[in-house]
């Protein structure tokens, strides 16, 4: 049986009736400390010991302070306990008591003994208060039974005028009869938005960040600093969901990096805080179960609905690789926590298929809005891109087991459904006292679950706060410490949560209505307008790998996956800016393979009616490429392309070129310029880059014409030679005649 009873008092209490209002019995909703300070009296409960009671005579001490912010002196105040002698029947009643801040739900009985009088409190001053109670005081007759008892601490003036009130619970859990000890799995996210835009392993100087926000988050009260504080103190059974893209970004920051700005890029020195944060995280999570999200936390539902069939599998694979490289070798990728904890059948299929033979998802962590209880009403609200649920339990129902079985094209997938109320308690409520309030509500909720009728074996409960939460370390650590000490709970890793083996037990415990994905959920996804250019970038990025001989994974895989991150759901403008930078980088890389001599004023010559024309391709990449060169005539009547034994070129990197000899035949009597189009293709036939137009100039000189011209030149040469010989002979005769004349003389 549950063994203790709990009294919670909230650290910040709301002022329900301003001092100037004399209407008795008025109650209003809770407000933050700041609001209460402007309105009047602030009731603070600073200590409750013990957290819960296991004996009817256990003395529970409650203490706190009153702060007078009314601007006037107050006198004749009484702080007293209001209670109900009957425990709450179920979680629905507990929710109603906490949510409905009206007199109708306020406990009807006032304790004559658990109260303290405060004679006067000056304006701006504070006064302490303290009283005790026992579980026996709450029951009539004084034999309390196990349960969660609603109580309220109120401040009255003049015996009737209520100035402030705070609600909470006392949990009474005697040792006998014993209750079932349920399994509690806590999943905590360490997910951020992408900050880096470009990262090319072969160009370490090209790691460019879109902003420098991570630097501020690492220290002081920054979000990542708070997450690390929680990780250091959390029990080793807590499961962490870590986005490897975050680790990747911080690793890049631990070296000199570049930040893009409006006026160009800014060089940043290595951030020592990033390196220290990573080292501390490795130590903190050394013994804890860790799940790697798909790289950059892509919007899986949106990708499924817009034809990104391969990116999800690649994201799972890359996420596992990066986590093993940057965090530790043993990191799971078989559990997926989709954006907002919501997916439909299409997204489930993509996750289950994953990358065949490499990485698949076998469990999904969902909200109860996505897989609701059959008799549970869920109202969704979306703020800053995060979907939350306001859950209305049906009176008399029991909490279903956290597991359910879904069916995908790749087989069954286990769904792990987070409890909406318990998960919400792990998120900051705002205002002083939220830690105490959340802790005591947590004790009451889990005790109520343990005491629900019909249990013979332990059930599974899953807690999962919002994926991009900004946590309060004090609150989270207090709840984890409390959960670890409750006798009706057993903390367990998330991966150990499995459906009951018996089909009958599964049917009785799950009570789920099936996957529910609304039109509003679909509207929250990344839309077609955003994803269409991203899809084109992804296509081109893949070509930069396919064109190489070895065909390694694209150097742009990580950059493209960051563009598909669910973080861009509520900030598509920033996502588009990042997409432009990635597009420019992809285009620049594709332009490193070019057809040389494609200048329109540099035509290539085809001598005669047929022959070969060289087409050269230059590779400025640092790796070898395999290129198919496709040449087509723009007008086959004027110029035909002849058959080729091979169109493939294998070209070394770093500026080397390859040349393909292309046979061409000009049409009969054709002379002048004709055009051909050259398209580079990958070895699997995909076009690489834009087609290039080349001008081919045909001379019209056939082979016979060349023979005739040659013969004519020979005849002309013979005539010239004959004439020269004749002149030489004539000059010789003239010299001989002159010689005879001289002798005669």
From TrEMBL:
Q: Where are the transmembrane segments?
A: 700-725
| Membrane found in the keyword field | yes
One Pfam family recorded for the sequence? DUF6049
Check the UniProt entry and state the signal peptide residues, or none.
1-22
Q: Which organism is it from?
A: Nonomuraea rhodomycinica
Chain positions covered by the region annotation Disordered: 375-398
* Domain of life of the native organism: Bacteria
Q: What protein name does the entry list? A: Glycoprotein
Which keywords does UniProt give here?
Membrane, Signal, Transmembrane, Transmembrane helix
